[in-house]
Amino acid sequence: MISMTKRSFNKTLLGGLTALATIAGMTFSASAADKITVGALRFTSHAPSFVAFEKGYFTDEGLEVEFKFFQAAQPMAVAIASGDVDFGITAISGGLINLADKGAIKVIGGALQEEPGIDGQIILVSKMAYEDGVTSPAQLKGRSFGITQVGSSFHYMASKIAEKEGFSTADIKLVPLQKVGALIGALKSGQIDSWTIVPHIAKGLVKSPEIFQIGVVADYIPDYQVTTVFTSTEIAENKQDIAKRFLAAFSKGADDFNAALVDKTEGEEGATAMVELIHKYVYADRPIEKAAPSIRNGAMRINKDAALNLTNVTDQLNWFKAEGLVKESITIDTLVNTNFVKTF
Questions:
Q1: pTM of the predicted model, to two decimals?
Q2: What are the structural domains of the chain?
Q3: What is the pLDDT, as a whole number, of residue 272?
Q4: 14 close to 7: Cβ distance less than 8 angstroms
Q5: Which residues of the chain fall below pLDDT 70?
Q6: What is the DSSP-derived secondary structure letter of residue 308?
Q7: pLDDT tens digit string along 26-56?
Q8: Contact, 231 vs 210, CB < 8 A?
Q9: CB 255: neighbour CB atoms within 10 A?
Q10: What pLDDT, on a 0 to 100 scale, did the predictor assign at position 44?
Q11: 193, 187, 152: which is closest to 172 by C-alpha?
């Protein structure tokens, strides 16, 4: 009888300790999540972050994510440097490079890239310009070209188009309008002659009678690394585990996005489900039936495992130097930390 009581007591004690250990483990797991803020634009090309969030990939990596949305690349870079945002996915800008030179920012991966056979960024002109003979990029000399800001990716693309067509950036009138919405309005009204933008916006615009397509950026910048993943130097150097976990979750989101809308290996059901997920963040103010075509149109390749096209990023850096937008002394190592992903 006494022996039975001891066994019962031991069993009860063991069970209680196990339960306490389980509760403690659950409490630790719940409190162990690292809170991060991710900067993004409401573009289809930013979908991997949205997918990773919605499918729990960030949670699986022990990350609690909050999004902060921007309308241009350079303000996001400033937010990273100030600590308001931890990770950003957007184009390289002069502002970003200058912040890297100050030791505030590092590029740690690649995202959107132009790829042969996949619809990419489209060169557009207003109806007024088109009817005045601007029917190809070769006629952009002497014309106005919309950009968000001096030193933006739009500035880089305009310059590369001019270079290949045999004239200089100075031969184009660059018009900085800060926001994508303002650029769309200016092009429709003929206040600017030309612009270039990702396909989910461009394809919708060319359906209107006010805007015409005259070329594609891929013909001027092959393998253009359009957007990159970047973070603060503090995280890149002193909190590398968080950066690795972010990139792992982001990459899973990119795999799902590519499979559903780029490679189309998930069938129509998978594509529809992906569009519905993205619609929570992109064109959310439109009914799904109107938003879906634009979201599908924006399906450009996101680099697998966030691999970075270092060759093109180096070309971008050299262009910024040549234009006098950043210091000549800045090196690729100043801008990029290559410890996190494959480069090519």
A1: 0.81
A2: 34-113+225-335 (3.40.190.10), 122-219 (3.40.190.10)
A3: 97
A4: no
A5: 1-31
A6: B
A7: 443 445 789 999 999 898 889 999 999 999 9
A8: no
A9: 18
A10: 86
A11: 193
The DSSP line for 148-184 is SSTTSHHHHHHHHHHHHHT--GGGSEEEE-SSHHHHH
Q: Can you state the angle between helices 267-278 and 47-54, rounded to 10 degrees?
A: 100
DSSP codes joined into one string, 91-132: ---HHHHHHHHTTSEEEEEE-BB--TTS---EEEEEHHHHHT
pLDDT > 90 in the chain, percent: 75
pLDDT of residue 254: 97
Instruction: Tell the burial category of 253 from Cβ atoms under 10 Å away from its Cβ (0-12, 13-18, 19+).
Output: buried
Between CA 86 and CA 95, with CA 92 as vertex, the angle to 5 degrees is 80
HSE-up of 201 (CA within 13 Å, CB side)?
Answer: 21
| Residue 210 vs residues 68, 126, 303, 323: alpha-carbon distances, Å | 33, 6, 34, 32
How many other CB atoms sit within 10 Å of the CB of residue 4? 8
Token pair recorded at residue 117: 């056979």
Residue 82 φ/ψ, nearest 5 degrees: -80, -10
Q: Classify the C-alpha dihedral 53-59-60-61 as positive or negative.
A: positive
Residue 289: which residues within 8 A CB-CB, separation 6 or more? none
Nearest to 121 by CA among 46, 195, 42: 195
Dist. CA 338–CA 340, nearest whole Å: 6
Nearest to 100 by CA among 242, 233, 237: 233
Cα angle 174, 180, 185 (rounded to 5 degrees) comes to: 80
Rounded to whole angstroms, how far apart are CA atoms 101 and 51?
32
Give the model confidence (pLDDT) of 287-298 as tens digits. 999 999 989 987
Strands in 173-176's sheet, in edge-to-edge order, are 173-176, 144-147, 194-197, 122-126, 211-216
- 269-273 contacts, C-beta under 8 A, 24 or more apart: 271/296
Backbone angles phi, psi at 27, to 5 degrees: -65, -40
